Amino acid sequence: MQNLLGYIARRILALLPVMGIVATIVFFLIHLIPGDPASVLLGPNAAPSDVLKLRAQMGLDKPLYHQFLLWFSNALQGDLGDSIFLGRSVTRSILERAEPTLVLITLSSIVAILIGIPAGALAAVRPNKWLDKALMFTAILGVSIPTFWFGIMLVDLFSVQLNWLPAAGYSSITSGIWANLRYLILPALSLGFNQSALIARICRSSMLEVMQQDYIRTARSKGLAESLVILKHALKNVMIPTVTVIGTTFAVLIGGAVVTEIVFNIPGIGLLIMNSVLRRDYPVIQGCVLFISVAYVLINLLVDVLYAYLDPRVKY
Amino acid sequence: MEAIQAKDRVKVDGKVSWFEVFRRKWVVLFGGFLLLLTLFSAVFAPYLSPHDSRRIDVSIRLQGPTSAHIFGTDDFGRDVFSRVLMGTRISLLVGAAVMFFTSLFGAVLGLLGGYYKSLDNILMRLMDGLMALPAIVLAIALMASLGPSVVNVIISLSIVFMPRTARLIRSVVLVGVEMDYVQAARALGARGFRIMSQHIFPNCIPPLIVQSTFIFAYSILAEASLSFLGVGVSPEIPTWGNIISSGRMFIREAIWITLFPGLAIVVTCLALNLLGDGLRDALDPKMRELI
User: Fold this and answer.
1) I want to staple B258 with a disulfide (CB 3.0 to 4.6 A). Which of B19, B128, B225, B247 is the partner?
2) Average pLDDT of chain A?
3) Which of B38, B91, B140 is the best mutation test for A, with the most CBs of A within 10 A?
4) Residues of chain A with C-beta less than 8 angstroms from the C-beta of B144
5) Is the CB of B134 less than 8 angstroms away from the CB of A255?
């Protein structure tokens, strides 16, 4: 346990420079805008006095290093500035939109796991036979399908043709789980299917490796049924690399959720980003990007720690 | 580790026989064939299009597939088939350009980082920073600042995907530096550039080829997503993402506007992914752990 805590501390320490670089990249995003951001934000018809005011409000009239240090120290305290458009702080706007995104990502992960692990395990039972080949072809097909298009196709089938589920929108989880699920089944399916491909492939190759181990031969030679060999002896070890991929998947889903929220009009962080892009509300864009990358990095950290905890062979 | 059958090995005396790669791996052949078909459509798109992709005729708007318009018509009465064909050009242009730039810069940065320990820390922290942002989110943020255009899509996606290639090449270089023949070259007085280009880089080529095939596919998907979201290529240019984006309003009455460009994306990316997957297994099965 002492070791594990030390490991976590070391990992967090190693993350600091990475987060510093992320913050720097995010800071400079606004300076990539050709010309003066303040006048771009307000449009060509803005009064010069308004432009000056916004420049001052955004701190753009200060020297670059000063802007950077100010932005950095504020961000460290959770202050990401104010939205130009929404009339409230960026942090508050993000937190208000976090629930739909979180629920969507969680559900998509569940879909991905429910499809990915059985598919991978099934493929590995008889490697290189037709079922394996068909499943692995489907996996490659899965990563070749654009999620937003797949989402629209699901809407066409289940909302337009069959009229089973709503095509778009969201109902908060606080107003009932079923109401919430009805809106999220299709988005979670479209996002999860794509990710299940990755899980299936890792699960398969990990399974193939485990099945060649001595303890599997021992289990078989003592007369255990093949299903028991797989369920009791193999699966536990297969799960170790699979957990890592599930973690990575969770992180990748954050990106996918942005696009899926647009398709299904779910008022999450993705929709917030895209609306802010259309309104040129750069503080919100910066805030969301920083928030997402922090979440992404923390999830990856959590996965690594979980991995070290699950597999006693890992030295940390 | 998977059992690799003897017939799948394509190395003769340690050298890759490309003829054997294509002859023995049907997925490589199939993927390659599909890709050539897409490339052919892109190059000859103006000659293959049965109609002018920009011709507006509201009298035939939102018509389903017929023999005259095999993919139907859109809300302006434009021929969807011709528009999808023209979209092939943008998708392949973006994919190929991003593949080129990520390979070039990724290889250079990976070689420098792997070879010069003093550079390694700075370069790799920078790459880690870029990779700490989900690809599509970073691409959206970059496009929001740069503005929608084909060139900006290529710049953004190159920035987004380059770190992956750099990391991959670096990991190959780190192994290469320790090899006896590299030590021998150094003992004979060879300098950094010569060692990197003559002795280490050749080992990087197979993983680079495989990785860039996948990046080609990622870029096509990412470009389509960006255009769909309205921050990619400007909406008046027919790209697959743009066509889907405009057809989305009409899924109740004209699903074909959305269906066919999406299928074009699926076929092209499937071709690239099959090719990449087959090449990876054929060139070096151990690569599976890297890419």
Assistant:
1) B247
2) 83
3) B140
4) 29, 277, 280, 282, 285
5) yes
Place of tokens 């992960």: A109
Distance, in Å, from the CA atom of B9 to the CA atom of B14, rounded to the nearest integer, reads 11
Q: What average pLDDT does this structure show over A35-45?
A: 72
Please choose, from the candidates B136, B114, B274, the residue with its C-alpha nearest in 3D space to the C-alpha of residue B210: B274
Q: Is B277 on the interface with A (CB under 8 A)?
A: yes
Task: Compute the radius of gyration of chain A from its Cα atoms.
Answer: 24
Q: What is the ipTM of this complex?
A: 0.84
Of the candidates B245, B155, B44, B57, the one whose C-alpha atom is nearest the C-alpha of residue A152 is B245
**Closest by alpha carbon to B78, among B251, B282, B231, B254?**
B254
Of A59-63, A104-108, B89-93, B235-239, minimum mean pLDDT range: A59-63
Residue B291 tokens, joined: 């890419």
What is the longest distance spanned by two Cα atoms in chain A?
85
Q: Which residues of A touch B270 (CB under 8 A)?
A: 140-141, 144
**Which tens digit of pLDDT belongs to each residue from A240-277?**
777 777 777 877 788 888 899 999 988 999 999 988 88
Give A153's contacts (C-beta < 8 A, 6+ positions apart): B258, B259, B262
Cα distance between residue B93 and residue B41, in whole Å: 13
CA A219 to chain centre: 39
Cβ contact A140–B288 (<8 Å)? no
B142 in reach of chain A (CB within 8 A): yes
- Helix, strand, or coil (residue B16): strand
Output the pLDDT for position B23.
Answer: 61
**In chain B, which among 101-140 make CB contacts under 8 A with chain A?**
125-126, 128-130, 132-138, 140
CB pairs under 8 A between A and B: 153
pLDDT-derived band at B8, boundaries 50, 70, 90: very low
Q: How far apart are CA B149 and CA B231, in angstroms?
A: 8
Domain B22-57+68-290 fold is MetI-like fold (1.10.3720)
CA distance B87 to B41: 10
What pLDDT, on a 0 to 100 scale, did the predictor assign at position B1? 35
User: At how many degrees (to 10) do helices A90-125 and A269-279 cross?
Assistant: 130
Q: What is the pLDDT of residue A85?
A: 74
pLDDT at residue number A35? 67
CB neighbourhood size of A164 (10 A): 11
Out of B141, B258, B288, name the one closest to residue A285 (CB). B141
